[in-house]
User: Fold this.
Amino acid sequence: MKKSYWNYFPITLVIVSGFLMGGYLSFGIHYLKAFSFIENADGRLILSLYGVGMLGATTYCARFWAKDIEEVVYKNENFLPHFFDFIGYLTLILGGGITGVILFLLIKTGIGVSTTSDASKITLTGEASVLFAYIGGLFHFRVQRQLGYIIDKIFKESKTDEKKDVVSQQDSDRDHIVANK
Assistant:
């Protein structure tokens, strides 16, 4: 695939669109009453926080894009983008919105679990909600990595569990062989 400076054009469009769409979702829903057909307050909040997460991820993409251009222009033209690079930027921005919402929900649930038995009664200030969603989008990869570590720890088997599984499997195999004779 041919690499070219022209391939920065769709990347630029994706980044500008990320700022516009993220801004519209986050601020338009709150201040302009966009998507007024969504009457559920929680639904409007989540959609707005998705936009904030998109803004965080778009900020990350814009920073990476600027570093990429500087590297190509001043250091090594071999790193020019190919045509499909814009898809990576697009998926990062959309995924950043999701990660922002997930981080918000995770923090809200964590606070709820640690303070009361009913997490649905916990409300965070609007500023805190926006901050958590933005951080989720901005640090999209770090949040995913940390959540992966947490999930790994939760589902990690201990050495004794692994030994029990091996012995149990050997017993099962032996019983199967005996039954087939």
In short: The helical segments are 8-31, 41-74, 85-115, 126-138, 140-155, 159-180. Residues 5-138 form one domain. The mean pLDDT is 82. The chain has one domain: 5-138.
